[in-house]
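Handout, tutorial session.
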Amino acid sequence: MANVLPRERQLAVLAALVDGNSERAAERMTGVSRPTINRFALLAGQGAARLHNRRVRDLSCSLITFDELWGWVAKKPHRVDPAEDAVDVGEGWIFAAIDVSSRLCVSFYVGKRDQESTDRFIEDLRARLVVMPQLMTSDGFAPYVSSVGTSFGPSSTFAQTVKHYRKGSRRGPDHRYEPPRDPFIVKRAVFGAPDMAKASTAHSERLNLTMRHVNGRLRRLCLAFSKKMENHRAAVALAYTHYNFCHVVKTLRVTPAMQAGITDHVWGLEELLDALMSDAPSEKPIARPLAHVKPEGATRELPAGRGFLRVVQGSAAPSPPAGPAPHPPAPVPVAATQSAHAPVEPTGQLDLLSWRPKPRKPVQLSLFGDPPGEEQT
């Protein structure tokens, strides 16, 4: 007889894991041994990655923002021995892209915070879209520029919001985890002509906060951290998949998957468990040509389907206020007792406005010299 965890216990363990509990806490809550919970969490996370590949694709997202979330595996970076294989040890950064309109996590990737991981993350994001986003926004991480330019091309619209936090010796009781409350944000356009009023990473930061609540492996100063990169990736996939299909966003009153049109109802844990344990094929999506949507306002279509050129308000002179055009001032009449060429009596005070040209005797020039016996007049 196979040693299979009963379905009721599977649902209990799954509920404990997606609610932010560690494996040891889930063991105390459900009565299931920790090694069994570890194996179940790995299978559920791998199934979540397959489910994400099957359902989250062919999307039309207008506003996308992406950011990184810090995590670590086995040991923190400053404790990693140079002789060790640091590929699966040390930092395990989480790259995540979110659709602002639906709050859907479109793509996520776990790796080092370097150019290679950034390229893979942006490539996966590009493969899940069929429409060119009207705006993509990130923080000031430099590798994003090269990755977005390679995957989306120069016809994309991409902006970065760079945050300069205050420097100094002042430290509060929570200085390790909470930045100053008065950051100085600088927005800059990288590709295209982005609308800077919509360029923000606030939704990505809020999603990062949610992930730290629902994924116990991302908590600080505790023993719930991942010991293997494989388990870390599985836990991240499970958390984002549960968020997309089961988490009801308060402001939308539906799940992100419902808002994005992927599903038409809120998934329960039983439906999620059946989808996670399914062995249906789930190859990663392949990038297809992106369609360009005409943005709002005055635009002009570029040749060869490369997008649209949007008119941007420059820093020229301000336009006149709305309403009827003002009448020009009436000319000041000249006094009847004073003609236009009347001489002006000297008063000792120079008046530039009263200057009049003096009559001069006409002078005729000769190109061949004056005839003999005649004087030039």
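The second record follows below. Compare its token runs with those of the first.
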Amino acid sequence: MVPPGTIDVHAHYFPRDAPPSEVIAGFPRAPRLVIDSPETGRLVRGTDDFRTVRRALWDVPARLADMDRAGVAVQAISPVPVMLEYGAPAAPFAGYCRWVNESVARAVEDGDGRLVGIGTVPLGSPPECVAELRYLSEVLGLRGIEIGTRIDGMELDDTALEYFFDAVDGLGLAVLVHPVDGGGGAVRRSGFTYDFGLGMPSDTALAATALVFGGVLDRHRGLRIAMVHGCGTFPWAYPRLRLGAQIAGTHTPEELDLLVSRLYADTLVFDAAHLPALVHRFGPNRVLLGSDHPFIPGQPEGGLTDLDSAAEHLPPGAVPRILRDNALEFLGLSSGELVTDHFSPIKEDHYGTH
């Protein structure tokens, strides 16, 4: 039986209105939106243009229309990664995060049950961060937090971040890990092709390595963490990392395999042949549909087509889990909390055994 609707866990949103004046006064380069036409706008930092964007990034009806065309029932919307400005002044950045989270919550309300909110927090300031985690969870009803692959130069296993993982674990919030544009210096070549094609997936792999080999997942057994872009290069590097840890005597392969199986990864890998490898590495219960909407041309349609093509090479029942069930578990939701009467574009015969 075809699931009643697909869930895309990796889609971005930007507020239409301007950040509060007190935020701009203390954080002049706070990313903001300039709308240039009914269909396009620009993200800017201070007086510098960052990138051109299209209407679906800020306009909920346009987003829902895109989702309808692709056959996506529900999206989890998260901030654009450029908004994860952890090096910004503490107080203005805390205000910026509050502005972002409240705008995400309003978009979710306007989405008529088809949007799920993922927020952001000022990770560099523990008191403000914990307060914002509670506010976005208990008051705004957001379901998760997006964080960068590094936090103001710190790897994710830095002891200074333990308070954050303690808090999200206790609150039951999902964590979405996203690289920043440029790949965080993970490769030695510069330019968009290298930054986008190698830097971001390499940076994501380094973050996953910190979570697995640095003890974060071992210390926080309740964490639900998803790595975007298929967890970058990690699925292919992991066997060698595992062997290195075994040779060094720091971990057993069995211990590491168990930790890796707790990570979620999305399907945004741009090649149907890679999808069986993702399912092999993380398991059929840990792969999620992701599109990077509305930034990547041809997505989410291309990703759904790839999943359709790969379905015969996946374990029985894997496709409906990837399209919906795994996302519900990651986000801590029941199916009754979401709109369910939207179709799935994957062929019905892929939902049984093969």
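Points raised in discussion: Confidence is low (pLDDT under 50) at residues 346-354.
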